[in-house]
Design brief:
Elements: H1 5-25, E1 29-33, H2 42-57, E2 61-65, H3 69-76
Parallel strand pairs: 1-2
């Protein structure tokens, strides 16, 4: 993959913004509810998978669950 200068600048900007969160959550387990509209388009599926892999690579432990939206929502309230 060849990056243009604009693409490289965009990636650097996103990583700079994400760095405090990466530092905060490294070594932690994060539960991610995946379903609904996120599963309808290939581009969204690819982006989700890419982001989960990135979390694992930076030391975050993602756990993906499907469904249970109302129950998860009530636990978070």
């Amino acid at each position: 993959m060849t990056l243009t200068k604009d693409s490289a600048m965009n990636i650097a900007s996103v990583l700079t913004e994400a760095l405090p969160y990466i530092q905060r959550f490294t070594g932690k387990t994060i539960v991610i509810k995946y379903g609904g509209n996120a599963m309808t388009e290939d581009e969204l599926k690819f982006g989700f998978a890419r982001d989960v892999v990135l979390m694992k690579l930076v030391g975050i432990n993602p756990v993906v669950v499907h469904g249970g939206g109302p129950q998860i929502g009530s636990l978070l309230d």
